[in-house]
Specification:
The structure holds two protein chains of two kinds. Chain A is an alpha+beta fold. Chain A has two domains: about 5-155, PurM-like, N-terminal domain (60s Ribosomal Protein L30, Chain: A, 2-Layer Sandwich); about 155-325, Phosphoribosyl-aminoimidazole Synthetase, Chain A, domain 2. Helices cover about 30% and strands about 25% of the residues of chain A. In chain A, strand 12 and strand 13 (about 320-325) form a beta hairpin. In chain A, helix 3 packs parallel to helix 4 (about 100-120). The longest helix of chain A is centred in the N-terminal third of the chain and has 18 residues, at about 100-120. Chain A is globular and about 65 Å long. The two termini of chain A are about 30 Å apart. Chain B has helices at about 10-25, 35-45, 65, 70-80, 100-105, 120-125, 145-155, 170-180, 190-200, 205-210, 220-235, 255-265, 295-300, 315-320, 340-345, 350-355, and strands spanning about 30, 55-60, 85-90, 110-115, 130-135, 160-165, 185-190, 215, 240-245, 265-275, 275-285. The model of chain B has no long low-confidence stretch (mean pLDDT about 95). Chain B is globular and about 65 Å long. Chain B folds into three domains: about 5-60 and about 175-245, HypD, alpha/beta domain 1 (Rossmann fold); about 65-170 and about 255-300, 3-Layer(aba) Sandwich (Rossmann fold), CATH 3.40.50; about 315-355, no CATH class. Chain B is α/β, with parallel strands linked by helices. In chain B, helix 2 (about 35-45) packs parallel to helix 16. Chain B contains 16 helices and eleven strands. Chain B has a five-stranded parallel beta sheet with strand order 2-1-7-8-9. A four-stranded parallel beta sheet of chain B has the order 4-3-5-6, with helices on both faces. The chains are: A alpha+beta, B alpha/beta. The interface of A and B includes residues 246, 264, 317, 324 and 330 of A.
């Protein structure tokens, strides 16, 4: 019989001990975790840290291009990276439903380890709870991340330096993650070749930061999509934004599925996309640096900061019309990450 | 993307726009009576492209918006019965009833399932023989044939726990009632999907009796602009007629099979429309032969007293007398996340479309 997760695996007793030793410590291995202290003991060489947390409940757990484990690493690493921070340490907490398949859990943990290695971060602490069958849906993961931040980069989160004429850049096609997850849901009975863009962006962002000191804002366009980030940016800066819909890269299969189901790719979730606001004169070098990276090979300028309609984002539509760009009301797709 | 890109071609769009500018002399108002058109017009920013002589008005084309609040209240009352599973398209979930919404009822434990087809509702009924499964049938001639097919299938399968709660309506009485009421328009951008079922027959009285053109229109920008050009020409030449712009989908005779099915399953009844009141023979009710599937007849339920919100001018907006921006609640007290009326929450609602795409316009 296939090995299953039992209530005892979360009891704190022998089964828990074995699970930690044979699964988590084995895959996540690093010196801090190996010490198995109650708290991870870390030394940092700065007084500025970025600190973030995120929970992952994606359904289904496995989808083309990733799984909940990869997502749990990339999501938190990206939250740190778009703040201008260097991601260093992660915690990982698991809530697992009794009876969950052990092999699937191992696949998820392996993905987390691989993704963490790629991003150059260490998973240094964690927790496991097992709940009775039916009391949670298979597995939920929470990751918390810690990174160091140069004091010169604090404006990237606050958007304080955003000014008229700055260009808005995205690192590739939009809507892939949301549509990949949706297509993977059985009830839709859809077959598609859409792959999630789920990836850690810290190396890509680092390349951009290395070539320009004038990156004025960054945010990852996850739930709510690109439209939500841009609307928020207009609101927090009080400046106008103008986007050219024709310049926004969208994969044909994503466009097709969105048309079919009545979604607008601008509102569909991404898990490997960053919106950057860059001073006009630095745009070319940032684009060049990003285009040289696999995760940024479709980078393009999609709009700019303008004086008109302060506090509001506008879009020039594919046919040359104009309208406002608004935030999403309500949940478009539940459990997308 | 094939069959999409051709109809969003920037070059073709700008040719149509300059042709409209050339032809248009008189100040005219054209009304779209399909929520899908309202959404597409705003989403593509079409008003921005038109000369100031051409005004677009949204009509009673959003089925959720024209339905009575009592319908929502009654559907919510069904959902509160222990053995009832409600099946519905997604756009009803957040529509406000008098004191609640499905969104709130779901949180309180009601079994409400979003389906993509009435056939999914039949499947749920088959799989849950202990439950009564109610499908909320809402929409014009576009969705009514689907409900008819569902009922015919339920009869064939001998289901005894499946019920249709019909708010289905037909389009033409509303289009005529609007002109009777004196709403000032110069032509109809006629609904594309309704017409794929009905054909052109339902519009034939409109040019003859009222002197207004009807152009059956597709949903892409090129379709809409082409149709606006056709209607502008009709007005300028004073030659109103029924024409099909959406030829790739609509035949003059419509879909005979679907029409036959509608006639087999439904009878016409007088029905209430928001803004227009009771219109004779404008609603669809299951025929006696199929009344065992009629939720209204088969499921006893106590429904709370209907309360309409004060200050909401949805009725006037649905008649094209006012624009969403004229409502003092619009984008202030009434927003998509906290809607007063269905027009703000339905994906085809005029207030929703204006809020989302043209709030400052």
């Amino acid at each position: 019989m296939d090995k299953k997760i039992l209530l005892g695996h979360g009891s704190g007793g022998k089964l828990t001990h074995n699970l930690i030793e044979n699964l988590f410590v084995r895959h996540f291995h690093n010196p801090v975790l190996a010490d198995q202290t109650d708290s991870a003991l870390l030394s940092l060489d700065t007084t500025n840290v970025a600190f973030t947390t995120d929970s992952f409940v994606v359904d289904p757990l496995f989808f083309p291009g990733g799984n909940i484990g990869k997502l749990a690493i990339a999501g938190t690493v990206n939250d740190l990276a778009v703040s201008g921070a260097k991601p260093l340490y992660l915690s990982a907490s698991f809530i697992i439903e009794e009876g969950y398949d052990f092999n699937d859990l191992e696949k998820i943990v392996q993905s987390m380890a691989e993704e963490a290695k790629k991003a150059g971060v260490q998973i240094v602490t964690g927790d496991t709870k097992v709940v009775n069958k039916g009391k949670c849906d298979k597995i939920f993961i929470t990751t918390t991340g810690l990174g160091t931040l140069s004091s010169q980069l604090k404006h990237i989160s606050t958007a304080d330096k955003v000014k008229r004429g700055d260009k808005i850049i995205i690192n590739g096609t939009i809507g892939d993650h949301g549509m990949a997850v949706l297509a993977a849901r059985e009830f839709l009975n859809l077959k598609s070749d859409i792959t999630s863009d789920c990836a850690c962006l810290n190396h890509l962002i680092n390349k951009a930061l290395n070539v320009s000191a004038q990156i004025h804002f960054m945010r990852d366009a996850t739930r709510g999509g690109v439209a939500t980030v841009l609307t928020e940016l207009a609101e927090i800066t009080g400046m106008g934004i103008e986007i050219d819909e024709q310049q926004i890269p969208v994969n044909e299969n994503v466009r097709g599925m969105c048309e079919l189901l009545g979604y607008d790719p601008l509102y569909v979730a991404n898990e490997g996309k960053v919106i950057m606001v860059v001073a006009s004169e630095d745009t070319d070098q940032v684009l060049k640096a990003m285009n040289n990276n696999k995760l940024g090979s479709n980078s393009s300028v999609i709009g700019e900061i303008v004086d008109e309609h302060p506090g509001r984002a506008w879009i020039k539509t594919t046919i040359g019309g104009k309208r406002i760009l608004d935030m999403l009301a309500g949940e478009q797709l539940p459990r997308i990450c | 993307m094939k069959y999409i890109d051709e109809y969003r071609d920037r070059e073709l769009v700008s040719r149509l726009v300059s042709e409209i500018q050339k032809v248009s002399r008189k100040d005219i108002a054209l009304m779209e009576v399909c929520g899908g058109h309202t959404m597409a017009i705003q989403k593509f920013g079409i008003p921005f492209l038109l000369p100031p002589t051409i005004h677009l008005l949204s009509g009673p084309g959003c089925p959720v918006c024209v339905s009575s609040r009592k319908y929502i209240d009654q559907a919510i009352a069904y959902s509160r019965l222990d053995d009832v599973i409600i099946t519905t398209f997604g756009d009803l979930i957040r529509v406000p009833g008098s004191t609640s919404s499905f969104e709130k009822e779901i949180a309180a434990g009601a079994d409400v399932r979003i389906v993509f087809s009435i056939l999914d509702a039949l499947k749920i009924a088959t799989e849950n023989p202990e439950n009564r499964v109610v499908f909320l049938g809402i929409g014009f001639e576009t969705t009514a044939p689907g409900s008819a097919a569902g009922v015919l299938n339920a009869a064939k399968q001998g289901l005894t726990n499946f019920f249709l709660f019909s708010s289905h309506k037909i389009m033409q009485p509303a289009m005529e009632a609007l002109i009777d009421e004196g709403v000032k328009i110069d032509g109809y951008i006629a609904p594309g999907h309704v017409s794929t079922i009905t054909g052109t027959g339902i519009y034939k009285d409109i040019p003859a009796k009222f002197g207004l053109g009807c152009v059956i229109t597709g949903f892409e920008p090129v379709d809409l602009l082409h149709s606006i050009l056709m209607l502008t020409r009709q007005v300028e030449d004073n030659k109103p007629e029924v024409a099909i712009q959406y030829k790739r989908a609509v035949k003059p005779e419509g879909n005979l099979k679907a029409k036959k099915m509608l006639d087999e399953v439904f009878d016409l009844r007088d029905d209430w429309w928001r803004g227009l009141g009771i219109l004779k023979k404008s609603g669809l009710v299951l025929r006696e032969k199929y009344s065992r599937f009629d939720a209204e007849k088969m499921i006893d339920v106590e429904v709370e007293e209907t309360r309409e919100d004060k200050g909401c001018i949805c009725g006037e907006i649905l008649k094209g007398l006012k624009k969403p921006g004229d409502c003092k609640l619009f984008a202030k007290a009434c927003t998509p996340s906290d809607p007063f009326g269905a027009c703000m929450v339905s994906n085809e609602g005029a207030c929703h479309a204006y809020y989302k795409y043209n709030r400052d316009g």
